[in-house]
Amino acid sequence: MNWKDKLHEIIYEADTPAGKAFDVALIVLILFSVILVMLESVSSIDLKYHDQLLFLEWVVTVLFSIEYILRIICIERPKKYILSFYGVIDFLSTIPLYLSYIFSGSQVFLALRALRLLRVFRILKLVQFIGESSILLNALKKSRAKIAVFIYAVIILSIILGTLMYLIEGNESGFTSIPRSIYWTIVTLTTVGYGDIAPQTPLGQFIATIIMILGYGIIAVPTGIVTVAFSKEKKDSIHLNTQSCKNCSMEGHRDDALFCYHCGHKL
Amino acid sequence: MNWKDKLHEIIYEADTPAGKAFDVALIVLILFSVILVMLESVSSIDLKYHDQLLFLEWVVTVLFSIEYILRIICIERPKKYILSFYGVIDFLSTIPLYLSYIFSGSQVFLALRALRLLRVFRILKLVQFIGESSILLNALKKSRAKIAVFIYAVIILSIILGTLMYLIEGNESGFTSIPRSIYWTIVTLTTVGYGDIAPQTPLGQFIATIIMILGYGIIAVPTGIVTVAFSKEKKDSIHLNTQSCKNCSMEGHRDDALFCYHCGHKL
Amino acid sequence: MNWKDKLHEIIYEADTPAGKAFDVALIVLILFSVILVMLESVSSIDLKYHDQLLFLEWVVTVLFSIEYILRIICIERPKKYILSFYGVIDFLSTIPLYLSYIFSGSQVFLALRALRLLRVFRILKLVQFIGESSILLNALKKSRAKIAVFIYAVIILSIILGTLMYLIEGNESGFTSIPRSIYWTIVTLTTVGYGDIAPQTPLGQFIATIIMILGYGIIAVPTGIVTVAFSKEKKDSIHLNTQSCKNCSMEGHRDDALFCYHCGHKL
Amino acid sequence: MNWKDKLHEIIYEADTPAGKAFDVALIVLILFSVILVMLESVSSIDLKYHDQLLFLEWVVTVLFSIEYILRIICIERPKKYILSFYGVIDFLSTIPLYLSYIFSGSQVFLALRALRLLRVFRILKLVQFIGESSILLNALKKSRAKIAVFIYAVIILSIILGTLMYLIEGNESGFTSIPRSIYWTIVTLTTVGYGDIAPQTPLGQFIATIIMILGYGIIAVPTGIVTVAFSKEKKDSIHLNTQSCKNCSMEGHRDDALFCYHCGHKL
């Protein structure tokens, strides 16, 4: 095994102690870089510690650059990594500081680094939680179509009700355009309720009331969809640990089955 | 098949390629017309591009007019279409621009065009999603009575609690009338919480607290109703495609069972 | 059957056409009286139509008085009715207008009339919805203990977190006392979020964030409790329509039972 | 049994009448002390009744001191109690008034007394509700891993979306830093919606809309997790009190079954 393969094992896999150590170090570095960006965005902190933050920013950027180069070197088909989802994120979150010396203002794109947090999911996937999160994801995937229909209906409903509220409130009290009115409808329907826009006419308040009760009720729909999907997922995974047929090794029999459903052999 | 029947097939059905193309074109036109109305309602955009928007408005109106006339021509009983739900919506969403030359201000009713979005459901119904949305709708229909009882109880509760809050807060802090007070109660009970009206007296805040916890709790009721309805719907659709054993008439076999799980007889 | 019994049948029961007509008339009168109280509370309407509203108020009060007296006359043990829940509500919602000539300001108690709306439940109970609402109520009754534990935990949590926020925000930004701070905590935990009080310090906002995610998560608890209670209720009612034993007529056998669980007779 | 053992039985256990009486007295005292702290924090009440409140504060502090000393005396290994969770809370909630004579301002820590309310759970655990709350806790414990994955995903999502909103709104309308922007995202995602910060740019409002619908939808995930956990818990607890047939070892009999439903043998 040459050094490239070794490096690949460390960076891309997590089976060896060195691989695990690399993943932990990467998570720590990502979290640290995100906190750094957050602190820079707070103007009072940035004014006081600007130089120190910039120095740490450079440290992080250099480390990310090294990681990026190593990833390209040790993989067989670098193009595949560079054009992959995580490859693009890695590139975009490393480049801004270099660019800030060419284009002023591009430092703002440091915030793209927050996208690196998504990598945490990938690393965890290799280590732990895999069973739990896969059950969640499977259930959500299976109820995708139903959730799409639901979101679709909510959006159409919001457009119709938002337009209606625009006609009723008529430029008053923040309902200055239909898009704003639709924005308000979604704020109300999802029970967020900022209060930056609120109906003033009695009729507007009456319809707002109906929208609220509607929103309060239809929250039950996604909940119902997901709950049923979860409970089905659970049942499927439970049925796996029942007896297997001695004759044909088939699994998944009913709990009270006396004969194999596949070959008819007595269980 | 004469040209009327052909036209009917294209406009009212979606089995032929031409019919599908017409439906897709119609959805695009509806979405475009709704976006147009939205843009017009934003005063800054309307000031700048008023003439262009008006021109596009005319294009859309003429196309909708042609569609409306064709629909009447190619159907056998035009009255049935004209008085149907979608017939009325089609008419109301086409006429406003013509009317705006007779009555000033009627342009506002262009917003009625948003109702056309409902047709999207009809078109989709013919094409896709039919299975998924029918399961959702069936489940909701079956739990209709329970949901009605629930909404009824919520409204009565809101009226009683709203009246109570009016007595306690006594014209202070926005609780100026019982209807306004009921409006506030529903805003709170559904956990929307605008904050345009908020109790100021300690007793009012105490009761507001109880209303909130109540609202937080009773959201469980519609969720429970819908979830149970969904899970029943799921089970029914699974149990429908089972067979019974010819020997012992046992039911509830797995979909891929070859032998009865109870007596071992070949299915 | 003398006139007292006839009257009793009309007023207290709903089996005869006359009884049903009385119930419908009573519901209409109650709804009308509640709307009347609402309109009076809107000062702009009250200023304009004060005399007309007062006249209608007298009509309603006289009708309620007659109903109250008839109820006492035609029942065998009047005391039982007078001291019953609905008896007290009927009395309290009838008396305020009379009292307003003795004590000024007692007119405000007309709002108690909203409690009459509860009678609507009673009337409906006799006619319709009985099955549906009884399933809902049974399920809620059975999960009473769990819901009590949950509400209890929420209140304790709110007191502790509210006190904590008072210490952190320290009289700033509306957290002027511990009770107010607890009020804010409940507003946040239940995801109502008025915004009349909002944390200003970074630490306060951080803890507010935790409270929100907590509130977002623990809404799952009552939902879970009620959903499970509903689904159990459904199953119980389904088990009623299974076979009964020919020997001992026992019901409620398992779907795959071969012998009666009570007498051992072959099913 | 010497007096130490007797004292231990009264203070630490709840089986004897004296033990129960002590627990009830302690709950009353804790509730009283918490209400006292609340009243002190309301400046208008504190100004008027400062001396009376201080006196009652001393009464409570002395009683708590006595309880603390007795707890140490009557236990075999005092260290274990002192360093236990409740031991630390008892100490911290007793000491502030004494400290207030040494360090000014330490009276504020009286609010720590709210933590004493947690003891109420412990006392109740010994007496009642044990079955109900243990079912709740078991279900929550089992779904711990899934809930952790969910909260983790929500936090990452909030950081990414919050950073995005900071870039879009650009210091306007309250989005002054990334942490504040993340705070807003969580306020929106959990459907709390204070309205102290609200997006002003059209693009910001559009993304806010997506965040709201997202938050409205993903509330279904914890609900689904907990509901499934509860329903599994319910089934398990029902299956625990069943018996198996002596003849055919069949399980899953009704609680009131006298004969095996499978072979008809007497149970």
Oligomer status = homotetramer
Beta-strand percentage of chain A? under 5%
How far apart the termini of chain A lie comes to 50 Å
Largest sheet of chain A: none
Helix vs. strand class of chain A = mainly alpha
CATH class of the largest domain in chain A: Mainly Alpha
* Average pLDDT level of chain A: 80
What is the count of structural domains of chain A? Answer: 2
Shape of chain A: flat
Structure summary, number of beta strands of chain A:
0
Uncertain parts of chain A:
237-242
DSSP summary: helix tally of chain A: 12
The topology string of helices and strands of chain A comes to HHHHHHHHHHHH
CA radius of gyration of chain A? 27 Å
Summarize the structure.
Four copies of one chain form a homotetramer. By secondary structure, chain A is mainly α. Chain A is built from twelve helices and no strands.
